[in-house]
Predict the 3D structure of the following.
Amino acid sequence: MAIPFVQELIFGLVLGSFIALGAIGFTLVYGLVNMINFAHGEFVTVGAYVGLIAAQFVGLPLAVAIVVALVVTSVFGWGVAQVTFEPLNDAGAVPLLLTSIGLGLVLRNGIRLVSGASPRYIEVTRPTAYRFEEWGFFFTDQQAFIVGLTLVSVVALHLFLNRTMIGVAMRATADDEDLALVTGIDTRRVRHVVWLLASGFAGIAGVLLAVSRSANPSLGFGQLLLILTAAILGGAGSPYGAVVGSYILGIGISMAVAFLPTGVSEFGTTMAFVVLIVVLLVRPGGIVNQEVRES
């Protein structure tokens, strides 16, 4: 007996994984640096191209290419933040927001000038499909890898935030930066780590998107609204809420495309925003009941 719901659930989990990796970094920056970074999508794109170079041109295995993208994108994002965002740290939210919008535009067009507008593909071994004909669904080893790597990344982040001194310092700074300063926490160092982590997660997302789709200059920008929506849906500033919000969003889009009438299903992403509006009307703080802060 076919169960189409299961197949769409699998597709939704994969889509949610892409969104989650981007949303974690986005919400870490919001929660600890207190800024909405519209250039975050370009960090995803940088990760995609670094993974492309490492896997396609250098010939590294995909797992190694992901590690390379993680490291390079982390350093890239941190370096960009030191040049553009950190000098404006005390200027307020609006200057930071406008800077991030401008930076995103510069990076996106810079990548287009260097790489060209044509999509680039990472050639990997053809995915192996595992079919369950009696249940009417299948999944591939590539899909399992994407979801599995995302869950491992989330667990690693959880352990980092709860089992390391710098992780505890990050949580304390997110709760109250002034109090963290009084207790002797080096909040500047915390911000450095936040930028490294946020950019690294974006880099992983970029490689996985490039493998399953393609690397192109607008790759990250195309994910940005979904990332922002997931972060707000989960509760702005909460990485755990962002993960939950991402999977709700991914599954919601997949189900909308599959089961709504043809004319409506073409607006799967729009339906996701409808869900977001409904959730925020009922629970303004999102899933974890953490409202967007005033700056």
Notes: Strands lie at 129-132, 137-140. Residues 4-33 form the longest helix (30 residues). The chain is about 75% helix and 5% strand. Residues 47 and 203 are 4 Å apart (CA to CA).
